[in-house]
Amino acid sequence: MRVRTPGSADAERSQGVNQSDSSGFSRRGFIQSLALSGLAVSPATVAAAPKTDQTLKLEKLSKQLGENFIVEAGWILTDSRGELKLVRNGQVLVRRGVVEDVREGGFTDALPRLKLPRQLLLPGFISGHTHCCSATPTRGIIEGPRSYARPLELVEMLSDDEMDALTALNLAELLRSGCTTHLEMSLSLRQAESYVRSAIPWGVRAYPGAMIPGIERLFAIWFRSDDKVLMDSEQGTLDEIAANLKFCKAHMGKGDGLIRPMMSPHACDTQTPATMRALASAAKELGTGLHIHLSQGQQETDTVKRLWGKTPTQWMESFGMLSEGPVFGAHMSGLDWEIDPPILKKHGVVYAHCPSGGGAGNGTQPYPEALAAGMAVNIGIDTHSNDYVENLKLAVLYGQARHELLGELDPERDSQRPTIWNAIDGATRIPAKGLGRDDLGAIRPGCRADLISVEMSDMLNGTGALPPEPLNNLLYANGRMVRTVMTDGRVQVLDGQFVADEPRRVLDEGGEVAKKIWRQLEQEAWFTDTPR
């Protein structure tokens, strides 16, 4: 969380199922201001859009697949003996949510077949860092730049129904772009509950938790001018830790085991020794690990060194927080590159690099340096862009630009030029290993059938023919080119259409809530002039 302050005509090209053998603003004040100005909106007031013929057709096709089926694809990215390998014209046999076999040739089983002749089949993407509820209300209005602090505060003031509508839209976007597993740091406990309410019926694989301190308390502690504010916040943070531990236990294993909550502290500079001990204890009790913003900027590292005499990484290690289950740390722009990487590597900590963190064009992060240091690096979403394919591209392209600039400006700093292979590995196998899940992040026998496909031969990212090196074509793609998404073999996107729910309703209801927030921002004269 990096806050800035000042339907197919060609049967061959389409996807199909073949059945043959082939701060300080109160909640009351917020609601009153909306009521007085005639702005109060409930998602329930949005007329549910009727399902189109295409939607009904796709729902029927997804049901026809059933539990056991075969996926045929023009290219398949497999994991063969620990190496990524592209298989042309391959097939994947799925039984009851698990990949049973992968072949270059065909299967003779008389099972339904999902035919993707001009598509690339990949493991479902894993984001090591999301704030699901809060993307759409800020997207397109913070690039001025403006701080997104106030919009995020207003999100927390929504009713539960409105929050659910916003969460659902953002969650649908993540799935639509091929992101099947989310390490979700909701900005409050209410938002975490909202996330779970949307994720379970859609069959989403998630490691949710609420940020501690939550958004209602965060900014006063984070942007404090006096450390007494931090010390005085201690009991409130301990109370949040206890509440979040209760949330995690209550939801552990829900959604047929897909929901596995984690403790999610905001960052080290908003904690005290007492809260760090409580977080370490809670994480150990749960056994699912920690998800944190780690050295997300130089100010955090400097503050922790000043207060506690250690880098944030060292401080976490001193409480045993790096050795009790998975640890994912986002951003890491303020790492001490002499001290921290060896510690992080020793404990298998995963760096969640979020190229669109803070909004579009908000600078680069140390992806090339982390690769050069041999760290485990994941591609994460953060807040404002839910397009995972776009973030893969940004990771590579921003990273290559940063690498070149470092070579000119700081040649003594170790750096590695990122490739699309680095990014894909960081989206799949690396975070799966970091989670301790050898059944995720790969297409090989025994892995869960978390699968996605991307169009490779259409306009803009293709050439009209199946390309010879398909991963490179991802550098010209975006989330709209994702055609299939499934988790545990359950289809959530088919032929590029969201089928886990009615997409028009999800979009309309989420949009109404975003408009409500924007109108409140207009009332507060938040929309200042921006450079042109």
TrEMBL record:
Keywords: Hydrolase. It comes from the Bacteria. Pfam families: Amidohydro_1 (PF01979). Residues 15-25 have a biased composition (Polar residues). This is Amidohydrolase family protein. PROSITE patterns: TAT. Signal peptide: none annotated. Belongs to the metallo-dependent hydrolases superfamily. ATZ/TRZ family. It comes from Congregibacter brevis. Residues 1-25 are annotated as: Disordered. The keyword Hydrolase applies. Residues 121-491 form the Amidohydrolase-related domain. Transmembrane segments: none annotated.
